[in-house]
Amino acid sequence: MANRKPGKVVKAALEKAVDKVTEVVNPPIPGVPNSEPPSLEEPTEPRGPLPPKGDQNGPETVSPTGAPTGAPQIVNAQQGEFLTTSAGARLYDTDHSLKAGERGPTLLQDHHLREKIMHFDHERIPERVVHARGYGAHGVFVGYGTATNVCKSAFLGDGVETPVFVRFSTVLGSRGSADTVRDTRGFATKFYTQEGNFDLVGNNIPVFFIQDGIKFPDIIHAGKPHPDREIPQAQSAHDTFWDFVSTHTEATHHVMWNMSDRGIPRSYRTMEGFGVHTFRLVNAEGETALAKFHWKPKLGVHSLVWEEAQMINGIDPDFHRRDLADAIESGAYPQWELGLQIFPDTPRQTFEGIDLLDSTKIVPEELAPVQPVGLLTLNRNTKNFFAETEQVAFHLGNLVPGIDVTDDPLFQSRLFSYLDTQLSRLAGPNFNQIPINRPHVPVNDMLRDGFHQHAVHAGVAPYRPNTLDGGNPFVAKAEDRPFVEVAQPLPKAVKVRQSPASFSDHFTQPRLFWLSLSPVEKEHVVRAFTFELGKCYEQAIKERQLRVLAQVDPVLCAEVARGLGLPVPAVDARPKKVTPSPALSQVGQTWPTDGRLIGIVVDPADLDGVRTVRETILAGGMVPLLIAPTGGPIGDSGLVAQRTFLTARSIEFDALLLAGSPPPGPDAIPARDAKAGAPGAAVDPRVLLMVEECYRHAKAIGAWGTGRVALDSTGVTGAPGVVTGDDATKVFTGLMTLLGAHRVWERFPATIS
After folding, report:
1. Domain ranges in the chain?
2. Any idea what job this protein has (predicted)?
3. What's this model's pTM, rounded to 2 decimal places?
4. Residues labelled as active-site residues
């Protein structure tokens, strides 16, 4: 995948800014609540519902049985200018219950009160046992046509556009938990193809904790809060989790990924996705191949540092969902390339000695390159979180011609689990008739009745064969492209409860991952293990996990043991020699800067420089946020401050620019803001705090004019990744070059080679 060079991006952005004939001083900043601004007074003249914002889109208007209705999407929303009951009767009052006199008891006959309260009492549905906290968006997938030699699925054809809905999520936390916890992320995509729905239900980590789905309840019970106290929430830093993974060493590879920076992604937009399992592909000639699915973000893979993540969880627990929604609203549409690793479909189902049916193993990209087969673009936010994101139902059994399952024992169990989950969570068997789940092709399944049946079935013969309904529905012939399972021969075997011998190597691939990381990333892994194990109560669990790490790498084990104050355990086996995979590291490449958030500390003495830089940032597809002592208009300049020293914090910005070093604002007193510090400072302490945090988190910092005073005050002038100068545009040009690498990596100290 080709990467855009930051220098070209800067040049294009500057040219675009210069060529602008009409200056748009204040284009909308993402986050506006509705499509029209509110009036100061309560409106009294009846009117219909406001139209949705331009960035929002709902489910396609197909019927419960998949027929296109041709109706605009507005038909799925509330209609009319008057408040009504659910049966359509207009209401004259919804603020007062019906009473026997104004001070009397409420009457049982108040049907509006009962309907309103009854619906409220049942607004919530059971949250997902795992992946409860999620966020979704609509988009489109366009095939490249490069997969047709191995897969006959129509949606992978050249130029074929397929609507999609994608839901990102954390695994362990409840719906009310925070976004930036250390956890695995779900990356589930529903393709509404012309051959039926295809659900690719994966994660941001390519391996799983377990090899067999029968252990899935165990690992989730271990990772969830302790059942006696229901704490800790949305985290693995506790005894039951480490008790499980230290006694089930097959989890070691996944744990290594989760303790790395991959466990705390910067955003959904900079997160890889993986199908985890090996799938079987079939081409038009009936030939089969094995494959793994990959989602490669066009912006590159980028993560938070641990302190950032902790701060964000307190300051903005909705950080990831806000970032995704704002990016789509501002037109910085997130994109991922779908890629395939292709392997021969041999009887042993292995590749280069790696068992392809073991979901705790990867195939390094250096051995099997990821071949791009299509582009995913998320371009519409949801209209209603509950109706779409909360009710979307994924199922690995939603397959289309050309894609089939393998005998991976984790995959096989998931085929049962996902279907069973929807029956409980969505209260019946007709969950595929909810608008967000409806396929965009005709449905004639003969599945009648049941809870939430939306379709009004015709005919008298819901069985086949029949003659009373003219034989309808008919089974498809080969030319009609039905889904046909691959006729895979079964080995001669006896029924056993065991795994193949190849599943027993639990340490070679974790070692591969460790040795593929840069020194900075290794430091972060050591810190994560030390923190997580340090939160455990039982000493035996810490010692047991150190024995596991000793079999991965002696340096890793020794550094974690030192942090825990424990002796390094002795092990008999020597770690195997492996060849590192550079593709596993997040360090060393440059990426586009689309959608990045740039904080600009405003100085009234140089508003022209602020205006020029702001326009350049907008023209480059990024979002500038002006930071001033108070919000709103900045004098008569036409500029507007979106953040104040009170409300701004470094974690929101990818880079920080200082046009000045403003003195303390009027609210810079501890009684108003604990960040203000003691009075008497020359520069507002909250500005200095932002500079210190950005520097500590290895973010790019730039300053011109009097902005350099703040840098001198914090002692970061001349440090790596700090750009200064007299010209605002030149300073920003230097900043852009740094942004392409995500962080100023050389700022992080590293003692591990």
Report:
1. 134-207+261-437, 507-584, 597-747
2. Decomposes hydrogen peroxide into water and oxygen; serves to protect cells from the toxic effects of hydrogen peroxide.
3. 0.90
4. 131, 203
